[in-house]
Known about the structure:
Blueprint: E1 2-6, H1 12-21, E2 25-29, E3 40-43, H2 48-57, H3 61-69, E4 74-77, H4 79-84, E5 85-88, E6 99-104, E7 115-121, E8 125-132, E9 137-141, E10 146-151, E11 154-160, E12 163-166, H5 177-190
Parallel strand pairs: 1-2, 1-3, 3-4, 4-12, 5-6
Antiparallel strand pairs: 6-9, 7-8, 10-11, 11-12
The structure holds glutamine.
Amino acid sequence: MKIGVLAMQGAYAEHISILKKLDVDVVEIRNKEDLKNIEGLIIPGGESTTMGKLIKTLDIYDDLKEKIEGGLPVWGTCAGMILLAKSIYEDDTKHLATMDIEVKRNAYGRQLGSFETKSFIKGIGEDVQMVFIRAPYIKSVGNRVEVLSVVDKNIVAAKEDNMLVTSFHPELTDDNRVHKYFIDMVKNHIK
Ligand code: GLN
């Protein structure tokens, strides 16, 4: 199985090292040719405005959007979730806009917005380690979207068909369960 990790900016190296530990072949995605043979894609955390500009400047935007709309399993963490969202609260910016969610950026405040907790994720289990760094949360979801986790009344993980999003960063913890969950999504898609 080959999983691509968008490797332009942000926390991509951490995702890559976990995938390797889990015996997955990883492709670092830097241009559209890199997308050709992948069976799943992770869009990491970082800075969504920067990443959103880079995917356009580096001419990968159209191919990415087409692949995701065509059913490629994709997981966006934090800024990756913002890139996938159809709508950003009080902001007209649109990035890939493939998933029917409205997200609020820096939703916990800019300065004190980083914290850790443990919580339940549907389909994954109890006490999943969650690291939030100037994180967004999901303000509302469309009716095809399944809410997977709610922390302090805010939606922090959700799934719509082939698209998984988390507000937090599982790649910065020792808890690999969300990576395993995504790998299963990719396996099921290959079948
Ligand atoms: N605050 C960042 C943004 O809005 C996301 C932070 C992150 O990915 N850790 O793009």
